[in-house]
Design brief:
The complex is a heterodimer of chains A (762) and B (162). Chain A has 762 residues and is an alpha+beta fold. Helix content of chain A is 27%, strand content 23%. Chain A has three domains: 197 residues, Aldehyde Oxidoreductase, domain 4 (2-Layer Sandwich); 162 residues, Aldehyde Oxidoreductase, domain 4 (2-Layer Sandwich), CATH 3.30.365.10; 328 residues, Aldehyde Oxidoreductase, domain 4, CATH 3.30.365. The longest helix of chain A has 28 residues. By secondary structure, chain B is of the alpha+beta class. Chain B is built from seven helices and five strands. The longest helix of chain B is centred in the last third of the chain and has 14 residues. The chains are: A alpha+beta (762), B alpha+beta (162).
């Protein structure tokens, strides 16, 4: 069996965020006094700043930017450097700092940082917030605590070793003296901060904030209706704008009835914008469109309904879901165009196999459908500088796109990160940001661009569809000895489309002796991009369903087959380091741990006692360094649609759940998100454009379809990793496997829709 | 056209075309941006407000149809006893993820409890099924409604299926 390290590490990094970096030895802190007599601690991250792609002249500057400030009244303001998209980072990152700083959480105010190289990488993607910041943010807090202790020691003329910190105070136990942090600010500001790598972090048993159920820092304000989201931004003298683009991807403007639009009530300006490059539609840059600027958004939107645009005829008329399926079927008749991976001799192994199985799986394009439609507010000043207020997951890349498109220095783009009404990967692209900047520049005033729901469905970077022709051979024991996937996916001119790849190390690669992954490409003119758990959100369904088929065909328990394939608990050597980031090595013991835990909690061994027509299904997926096993209990309703009774999840993301409030919510939400995809979700392409226009034809899961989800964390002795994504993939195959157990019908194409029970239960 | 409407207990005068949806009058004219835009076709519930205590979709309610109805938005719901209890339950259980739908969820949940102080799971399904949460915080929405009602928050539906 091939157990080389890289081959068992199906890690899917986000498509666009910058390379990660820890707080390096070159990072340092400075301390200073605020105008109000408070302490300001500033973290400088030169190496990380360059990794983020920031312009060098800014990262080297002496500009002071507060990371932590402690006011004389003891209120501690901590900057949350990453975008908040509902994943909870605006709460989690300040928790890490506050824990080591030894302040009371009730005295902490979290504030959203702006895009600034001083903060290092600033993005929300790849479930990287925790692994990238777990140690560095604690170090920042601990360095602050150490300085405050030293300041008190100097005031009291005692050795720092005799002083301790707790709840925003420094104590000198031998004499019973104590001073609040607010009173130490002036003295601490005169000290040089310690080397970050030299500070001592707390023992987990002393945690008072990490591990406690902590509500989101913005939640009260959201429920008061305060302006937090991008769509809520109001800047002085702002106008509202809509931007009409070609519904057919890549369409260019021939002409439009601009004069007529300009004369409509409330319209301040209407003009044609030319896209930056021909392939901008695929690359999510600025594309051709008509901008309508008005005093109110509704005036602009009403005017848009009177807009008549002639677009260039479509260059490739065969861009449709139906044509893609026909093309995939044709490609599957012959061999793969290219080989991704080949171990052993699959044909020879198949010839010797006791049983050979073939099956074809497919899944559709999906839209992100963030509930807050894409929007952005921009102001371009006469000197060419740009100020942006954007709900974005990737502000640095957005600033670069704006600078490049407007032909200005990236240092002239200032980005305010607003709260995002959902991310799911959609806002890793910044097409709405560059639109707003260009329209604001042309309009000569601050402009808020807001898309309507149909535009949001028609101009996404979609989760790519895909097709898998699987062939597998089983030994007489039922164990797989040969495995082949001919993956038919999409691309542009021979390059695989964004998020449309099959990693060469995807399970079961490395665990079946003869294995081949081949690939053929269909030309695609539809933009694709990362969606929550890119790759995994589609591949898990196909692979983990087919593994279930193999278990049934070989007469094996699907749980036992997986345990057997992954083999005895062992740590496979660590993957290549990523910019100094510490990634726990892949550990088959952790796979076993969550599989056995979910089996125990769900009553897997007793599934034979379930009533006829009700079944349990199991799946496991490793992604974003997280190990997740899930079991679904399902049956069919009288109308043939699935009824999901309950879902169990066992999750191993390391030794510490930083914030249980967010953690359980992320797992439950990711599972129900995946459930909705499996049951209902589908984007159809016809004549080069997307058919679905709104939620009446894109059926997001609703509360009456959401079953109870029981979540169990398995704490293993590994550094904690992220949780926005890893819980999503297993639910799709677990549901399909449950429906097979319940009905005998195997689901090989998503969404599931309506089923009819097979007469004989398999 | 000039309209005088009552929003969160205050009389407001707005200048607007008759067909302008209440949503945009609230958001862009009165700058009450707590009420959210999601779909524009009354499918997602993000824009839910109360008209005389009844949940309404502001995105498809023309300003001309509002008349003298008392409009309550998320900015004002905390002044009612049920609104205050629902918001407190939402915070106690940390319901939200991105939070974008939650104003609409709270408005619908408050109206549910005002009319039915002890809702069953089926009642909750019925009342809340037209409010989409893209983050799928449904587990906690259900529990928070029960908590606001003073009911046990455990999900009893699984037992019903056995």
């Amino acid at each position: 069996m091939n157990n080389d390290a890289a081959s068992v590490h199906p890690h899917h990094p986000p498509a666009t965020p910058p390379a990660p970096a820890r707080v390096s030895r070159r990072a340092f802190m400075t301390a200073s006094l605020t105008a109000g007599g408070g302490l300001l601690l500033t973290l400088h991250l030169p190496a990380a700043a360059r990794a983020a792609g920031a312009p060098a002249e800014r990262s080297e500057s002496a500009e002071i930017n507060p990371f932590i400030s402690i006011a004389p009244d003891g209120i501690v303001t901590i900057m949350a450097k990453n975008p908040e998209i509902g994943q909870g980072m605006k709460t989690t990152l300040p928790m890490l700092i506050a824990e080591e700083l030894d302040v009371e959480w009730k005295n902490v105010r979290a504030r959203q940082a702006m895009l600034d190289p001083i903060y290092g990488p600033q993005f929300a993607g790849g479930s990287m917030g925790t692994p990238l910041n777990w140690i560095p943010m604690q170090q920042v807090g601990a360095a602050g605590r150490q300085m405050l202790i030293e300041a008190a020691a100097r005031i009291w003329h005692v050795p720092p070793g005799e002083c301790t910190a707790a709840k925003g105070m420094v104590h000198h136990r031998p004499t019973g003296r104590a001073l609040p942090y607010g009173a130490l600010a002036r003295e601490a500001a005169t000290l040089s901060p310690p080397e970050l790598d030299s500070v001592t972090l707390k023992s987990p048993k002393d945690y008072t904030i990490i591990g406690k159920f902590t509500g989101g820092v913005d939640s009260p304000r959201v429920l008061d209706g305060d302006r937090l989201f991008g769509i809520d931004v109001i800047v002085p003298h702002m106008s509202y704008a809509v931007y009409e683009k070609s519904p057919v991807f890549g369409g260019r403007i021939v002409r439009a009835n601009i004069e007529e639009i300009r004369a409509l009530p409330g319209v301040r300006a209407a003009f044609i914008v030319r896209g930056a490059v021909p392939e901008a539609a695929i690359k999510m840059g600025l594309v051709d469109g008509v901008a309508i600027v008005a005093d109110r958004w509704w005036d602009a939107e009403k005017a848009r309904r009177k807009l008549r645009v002639e677009w260039t005829p479509q260059a490739r008329p065969r861009q449709s879901t139906q044509a893609f399926a026909q093309e995939a079927a044709r490609l599957m008749q012959s061999g793969a165009h290219s080989i991704i991976r080949r171990d052993g001799d699959v044909d020879a192994a198949l010839a010797r196999a006791a049983t050979v199985l073939k099956a074809t799986y497919s899944y559709p394009f999906l839209a992100h459908a963030t509930l807050e439609p894409q929007n952005c507010t921009a102001h371009v000043r006469p000197d060419g500088s740009v100020e942006i207020w954007a709900p974005t997951q990737n502000p640095g890349a957005g600033a670069h796109l704006v600078a490049q498109t407007l032909g200005i220095d990236p240092g002239k783009v200032k980005v305010h990160m607003t709260r995002c009404g959902g991310g799911f990967g959609r806002r890793l692209n910044n097409d709405y940001m560059v639109e707003a900047a260009m329209i604001a520049k042309r309009a000569g005033r601050a402009v808020k661009v807001l898309w309507d729901r149909t535009q949001d469905f028609h101009h996404d970077a979609y989760r790519p569809a895909g097709f898998h022709a699987f062939t597998a051979g089983l030994a007489a024991s039922g164990k797989p000895v040969a495995f082949r996937d001919h993956f038919v996916t999409f691309g542009q001119d021979g390059q695989v489309a964004s998020s449309a790849n099959l990693p060469r190390d995807h399970f079961p690669a490395g665990y079946v002796p003869s294995l081949e992954y081949g690939q053929s490409l269909i030309q695609l003119d539809v933009p694709t991009g990362p969606m929550r758990n890119p790759g995994g959100n589609a591949l898990a369904f196909a692979f983990e369903s087919f593994i279930d088929e193999l278990a049934h065909a070989g007469g094996l328990d699907p749980l036992a087959l997986r345990l057997d394939l992954y083999g005895p608990p062992r740590v496979l050597s660590a993957p290549p380091p990523q910019g100094g980031l510490r990634i726990p090595p892949f550990d088959t013991g952790r796979v076993r741990g969550v599989l056995e835990l979910v089996a125990r909690k769900s009553g897997w061994e007793r599934r034979g006692a379930l009533p006829a027509g009700t079944g349990l299904g199991l799946a496991f997926y490793y992604s974003h360094f997280g190990y997740v096993a899930e079991v679904v209990k399902a049956s069919l309703k009288p109308d043939g649609t699935p009824k999901v009774h309950k879902i169990w999840a066992a999750v191993d993301i390391g030794r510490q759940i930083i914030n249980p409030a967010g953690a359980y919510n992320q797992v439950q939400g990711a599972i129900l998100d995946g459930l909705g995809q499996a049951l209902h979700l589908l984007i159809t392409v016809e004549n080069g454009r997307v058919v679905q226009r709104n939620f009446d034809t894109y059926h997001l899961l609703r509360i009456d379809e959401a079953p109870p989800v029981e979540v169990h964390f398995l704490l293993s002795d590994n550094d904690p990793t992220g949780l926005g994504e890893p819980a999503l993939p297993p639910v799709l195959p677990a549901l399909c496997n449950a429906l097979f157990a319940a009905t005998g019908t195997r689901i090989r194409s998503l969404p599931i829709g309506r089923l009819h029970a097979h007469p004989a239960k398999a | 056209m000039r309209y005088t409407i009552r929003v969160n207990g205050r009389r407001r005068v707005v200048q607007s075309d008759a067909d302008t949806p209440l949503l945009w009058v609230l958001r862009d004219d009165l700058r009450l941006t707590g009420t959210k835009f999601g779909c524009g076709i009354a499918y997602c519930g993000a824009c839910t407000v109360h008209l005389d205590g009844v949940p309404a979709r502001a995105c498809v309610t023309p300003i001309s149809a509002v008349g003298n109805a008392a409009i309550v938005t998320i900015e004002g719901i905390g002044r009612s006893q049920w609104g205050r209890r629902v918001k407190a339950a939402w915070l106690d259980l940390d319901v939200m993820q991105c939070g974008y739908c939650q104003a609409g969820q709270v408005m619908t949940a408050t109206a549910l409890l005002a009319g039915n102080p002890r809702p069953t799971d089926a009642d909750i399904d019925q009342a809340m099924r037209n409010n989409i949460c893209r983050c799928c915080t449904y587990t906690r929405i259900r529990a928070a409604i029960k908590r606001a009602a003073g009911l046990p928050t455990a999900d009893s539906r699984e037992a019903d299926h056995e």
